[in-house]
Amino acid sequence: MTLEARGIVVDVDGSTRILHGIDVVVPGTGLTALVGPNGSGKSTLLRQLSGVERPTHGTVLLDGADLHALGRRERARRIAVVEQEAASELALTCLEVAMLGRMPHQGLLGATSREDRVVATEALRRAGADAWAERSFASLSGGERQRVRLAAALAQQPRILVLDEPTNHLDVRASLETIALLRTLADDGVTVVAALHDLTLAGWADHVALLADGRLAASGPVAEVLTAERIASVYDVRAHVGPDPLTGRLAVTVALP
Amino acid sequence: MMAARRRRIAIGAIALAVATPLLATLAVVLGAADLSFGDVWATIGAHLGIGQPVLTPIEDGIVWQRRVPRVLTAIAVGAGLAVCGAVMQSVTRNPLADPYLLGLSSGASLGAVCALLLGVAIPLPIAAFGGAALALALTVGLATGIGQVTPTRTVLAGLAVSSMLGAITSLIIFWTVTGDSYREILGWLLGTLAAARWEAVALTWIGLVAIVVPIVLVARRLDAFAFGDRHAASLGIHPGRTRLLLLAATALLTGILVSVSGAIGFVGLIVPHAVRLLTGPGHRALLPLSALAGGIVLLVADTIARTAFEPRELPVGIVTALVGAPAFAAILLRRRVET
């Protein structure tokens, strides 16, 4: 499913403008990375794309139709979200957290079926979190929580997966495993859009949208967007882009000017 | 862990459901007048048209006109307060929330005091609900005025509203009440079930069934608030609307309960915490078990209030505060250790 933002403007507290009219398309196939410096508006744009928030101006289209014309539950069956930070006061087990993802598929009374349990368990396994299924979510490390919340989103069986910094708190191996999982999901036909800080991880994506100061600086295929000149100007660094000697993927190295 | 927890929940639910009628009968038996379990049930049976009366008319009056309605009212009020507390803790994501923290009880008391003392010609429960709804509107309005409504802002706004309405209530009482009625109004303000008759039973049980049953049926949707509003929204729930609807329902129930019992504290705060130790955080088990446990807690507290210093009677709110305040402190200490 294709997501398209048209003229998205977001103001907060009535005055501060976070996004200044963004037009961007998240293609229906593949993995789209959203990159940009801190404070460039990545998280805010993701919230508009996922429909969790409404923009001040502009519209978000899902396969060409207004996203907000869909019912909330209908939307939640198509789009799942992994937020950047999420704490819970509640002492839920990891399986219970994953089961939350089944909610849009359940009736009003929220009766859980055997299928819900199977899907949630499988989602935990896929996210590499099945070992902690019975453990309390609150007792996990930041990286472990990240995986469990990814599992909850997978349990939602979405057509579109929206993730804000999914590799936060993860060590190098876990980061790679996560991005490889997103790659697999994208190859399986799920539309994946993720905000990423690590530009080399963004090299795993098919498409990249680069934000700077609440405006779209560039978007398109990875090799076209992530050029040394553009990275240098947006991040104010010296940049080198070239194939990684180990993997052959696009790799970005940077230095202070 | 989940299988073990489910078994624990089932055992807990059965134990509470069995304990309630036993303790209720015991509560009717206890007190001046020499009664037995058999007397109580025979009397209830006789009034329901089964069997013959076994007690003298005076004893019969004590059982049927005083103690049975009082016990039934205590169960309904305790159950309602516990569910109100559990729901508020959930939708405000504040483990210390209850009808008091958001100002609803203060509002309900003010409404009731207006009806009682200023001769405002509306029925007490409606006045109390009006007060609770006013308090809710003020709290939400103030929270909205600060900016986007967040749980923390809602609670802070509730604190401001609660202080203000409490002060107005005190002012009205100080200004208008003299002599004997001072003691009476003070007793009601502290929370008492001494005046509960069959009208109170009807009012509280209708409120309980009409408001708590639907909330319990959709309890699982409250789980969606576990990770905050945005996550709830991504699961297909309208967080603002859901929160407002649930808070309005708790305001209505709080108004009904306060109009009957006065402001009884700590039940709504403590009972859900205790029940969570057994059920875990899932609302599908938490809400019905909180209702059962809350009913028992207030039933026991009221029986203590009624019989401990016979013939003098304590306002039950004093008993719940004496037990609840240390339990509240224990929650705070526990949380400090955990987080």
From TrEMBL, chain A:
<keyword id="KW-0813">Transport</keyword>
<dbReference type="InterPro" id="IPR027417">
    <property type="entry name" value="P-loop_NTPase"/>
</dbReference>
<protein>
    <submittedName>
        <fullName>ABC transporter ATP-binding protein</fullName>
    </submittedName>
</protein>
<dbReference type="Pfam" id="PF00005">
    <property type="entry name" value="ABC_tran"/>
</dbReference>
<dbReference type="GO" id="GO:0005524">
    <property type="term" value="F:ATP binding"/>
</dbReference>
<keyword id="KW-1278">Translocase</keyword>
<dbReference type="InterPro" id="IPR003593">
    <property type="entry name" value="AAA+_ATPase"/>
</dbReference>
<dbReference type="InterPro" id="IPR017871">
    <property type="entry name" value="ABC_transporter-like_CS"/>
</dbReference>
<dbReference type="InterPro" id="IPR003439">
    <property type="entry name" value="ABC_transporter-like_ATP-bd"/>
</dbReference>
<keyword id="KW-0547">Nucleotide-binding</keyword>
<keyword id="KW-0067">ATP-binding</keyword>
<feature type="domain" description="ABC transporter">
    <location>
        <begin position="3"/>
        <end position="238"/>
    </location>
</feature>
From TrEMBL, chain B:
<feature type="transmembrane region" description="Helical">
    <location>
        <begin position="100"/>
        <end position="120"/>
    </location>
</feature>
<dbReference type="Pfam" id="PF01032">
    <property type="entry name" value="FecCD"/>
</dbReference>
<dbReference type="InterPro" id="IPR000522">
    <property type="entry name" value="ABC_transptr_permease_BtuC"/>
</dbReference>
<keyword id="KW-0813">Transport</keyword>
<keyword id="KW-1133">Transmembrane helix</keyword>
<keyword id="KW-0472">Membrane</keyword>
<dbReference type="InterPro" id="IPR037294">
    <property type="entry name" value="ABC_BtuC-like"/>
</dbReference>
<feature type="transmembrane region" description="Helical">
    <location>
        <begin position="71"/>
        <end position="88"/>
    </location>
</feature>
<feature type="transmembrane region" description="Helical">
    <location>
        <begin position="126"/>
        <end position="143"/>
    </location>
</feature>
<protein>
    <submittedName>
        <fullName>Iron chelate uptake ABC transporter family permease subunit</fullName>
    </submittedName>
</protein>
<feature type="transmembrane region" description="Helical">
    <location>
        <begin position="155"/>
        <end position="178"/>
    </location>
</feature>
<comment type="similarity">
    <text>Belongs to the binding-protein-dependent transport system permease family. FecCD subfamily.</text>
</comment>
<feature type="transmembrane region" description="Helical">
    <location>
        <begin position="244"/>
        <end position="271"/>
    </location>
</feature>
<keyword id="KW-1003">Cell membrane</keyword>
<feature type="transmembrane region" description="Helical">
    <location>
        <begin position="313"/>
        <end position="333"/>
    </location>
</feature>
<dbReference type="InterPro" id="IPR022410">
    <property type="entry name" value="ABC_transptr_permease_F420-0"/>
</dbReference>
<feature type="transmembrane region" description="Helical">
    <location>
        <begin position="198"/>
        <end position="219"/>
    </location>
</feature>
<feature type="transmembrane region" description="Helical">
    <location>
        <begin position="283"/>
        <end position="301"/>
    </location>
</feature>
<keyword id="KW-0812">Transmembrane</keyword>
